[in-house]
Amino acid sequence: MRHYWRHLINNETAMERSFLVWRMAEELVCGRIPTSPQLAEQLAALYAQLSYGDATAQLTDEQFDFITKQFYPAKMLDVACLKSLRSSLHSSWSELAGMGEADAIRVILQVLRKWPLFGCHLQAAGMRTSNERRVFIALSDTAVHVIDYRQFVSFNRYFPTFYPVIPR
């Protein structure tokens, strides 16, 4: 795991931004970044543009498998209708024709940086208390956040993605 320093955004090189985008793809697949199904499709289309360039007339099985396994949240993939996901992913990807690698990286980072815990290393943990409470530990450049598991609420009945609800 490479640590992310929020205050050094202006000094990031193109290679560091690229590395961060690929690291966040792993976090997306693991379900550690909260997304809606629509946002997950758009991000997968951006990653497809980044990986393959402009979309072809047909989305091949190999491309679809690679995109969904590498860039689409696994929890959503388990409950998604693959036929509709395939068509919406291809149409979203087709709309990105002509977008370069640097632009795709910039857009992905703009979208993902809106999440307050972006760049944190999020890990499930347990507290040694009488009730063995489950928590998530989020390690950032300024703090260690301990988030109660009960504060992760499901936003959609059919797409069990978890959003952190952090009281202020």
From TrEMBL:
Every FERM domain range: 1-168
Keyword NADP: no
Keyword annotations from UniProtKB, A to Z: Repeat
Identification of the protein by name: FERM central domain protein
SUPFAM superfamilies membership: Second domain of FERM
InterPro entries for the chain: FERM/acyl-CoA-bd_prot_sf, FERM_2, FERM_central, FERM_domain
PANTHER family, sorted: MAX-1A (PTHR22903:SF8), PLEKHH PROTEIN (PTHR22903)
Species: Oesophagostomum dentatum
UniProt entry tagged with the keyword Coiled coil: no
Transmembrane segments: none
Source organism phylogeny: Eukaryota, Metazoa, Ecdysozoa, Nematoda, Chromadorea
